[in-house]
Amino acid sequence: MMLECRQVSYAYEPGRNVVSGVDLALTAGDFAMLLGPNGCGKSTLLKLLAGLLSPQTGQVLAGSRPVNRLPHRERARMIAVVSQSHAPALDFTVRDMVMMGRHARLSRMSPPTPEDHRLVNEAIGLLDLVELSQRPCNRLSGGERQRVAIAAAVAQQAQVMLLDEPTSALDPAHAISVMTLLQELPKRPAILMVCHDIQLAARYAKRIVLMKQGCVYADGNPEEVMTPANIDRVYGCNAQILRDDHGALCVALRQK
User: Fold this and answer.
1) Which of the 8 DSSP states describes residue 101?
2) How many C-beta atoms surround the C-beta of residue 114 within 10 A?
3) DSSP bridge pairs for 19
4) Residues 215, 21: contact at Cβ < 8 Å?
5) How far apart are alpha carbons 64 and 39 in whole angstroms?
6) CA distance linking residue 253 with residue 251, whole number of Å
7) Residue 176: closest CA among 149, 154, 147, 152
8) How far is CA 187 from the centre of its chain?
9) How far apart are CA 128 and CA 162, in angstroms?
10) pLDDT band at 1, cuts 50/70/90?
11) Is residue 246 classed exposed, middle or buried when 0-12, 13-18 and 19+ CB atoms within 10 A define those classes?
């Protein structure tokens, strides 16, 4: 399945576009990072792709069908979304929350199958949540709740994963673990992840989409996009592009 924007624009206030004329396509195996300064439209674009907002001009399509018109369960089978806020309203356990990722796959009123339980156990293990699996989610730290939300998205087995800053509250070890996990997911879903950590994006992304003032400024592999000129024009700071001992891309930033 391809998920794509075609000349999509959106404004919260008339005449002030937050997203403006964006063309973007995601296909199976994409591991793309969405970068850009605060307020440039990254989270809004993610909501448009997820069908949580309807474009005011243009279209967002899953295959050939408008995403915002798909029935909720069908859309959930196609697209998994990890938002920035994960505080549960009720006293669900970690395992309960991860099992919710399977609900779009269950027949109505049917209990989880052995395969559902297997996939939930696998996601809990992958996100290092085994010891927390019976703990109520409202007693977890912010970083632990983020891992629970990612585990639910992994268990969902959608064709597309949209993640809004999923590593923002994680310690470095868990952030690296999550990035490695997303890189190696089976069935190769398309992944688009909003990220403010340029170093993390440069090291792990296969593709970087750089936004500026609601538009896609650059889109390509990290070597093409993460240039000193692009970083200067988008972020307004100087950058030196380096490689570590293993050949991974590194970005050294400094104020102008």
Assistant:
1) G
2) 7
3) 10
4) yes
5) 30
6) 6
7) 147
8) 17
9) 21
10) low
11) exposed
d(CA 104, CA 78): 9
Say what the pTM is.
0.92
Backbone Cα Rg of the chain = 18
- pLDDT tens for 99-114 read 999 988 877 778 899 9
Q: Count of alpha carbons within 13 Å of 114, Cβ hemisphere only?
A: 0
Q: What is the pLDDT of residues 135-166, one digit of tens each?
A: 998 888 888 999 999 999 999 999 999 999 99
User: Over 60: is that where the pLDDT of 216 sits?
Assistant: yes
- Print burial letters for 45-68: b (CB count within 10 Å at least 16), e (below 16): bbbbbbbbbebeebbbbbeeeebb
Tokens of 81: 């979304």
DSSP 3-state percent helix, strand, coil across the chain (nearest 5): 40, 30, 35
Q: What is the pLDDT of residue 18?
A: 96
**Element housing 163 (H / E):** strand 160-164
Rounded CA separation 26/129 (Å): 30
The C-alpha angle 224, 227, 228, rounded to 5 degrees, equals 170
Kindly tell me if the per-residue pLDDT of 224 is higher than 60.
yes
CA atoms within 13 A on the CB side of 136: 6
In the DSSP assignment, the letter for residue 68 is: G
H helices present in the chain, as ranges: 42-50, 72-78, 94-99, 114-126, 142-156, 172-183, 198-204, 222-225, 228-235
> In the numeric block, which tokens belong to residue 252?
């050294």
Identify which has the larger pLDDT, 42 or 139: 42
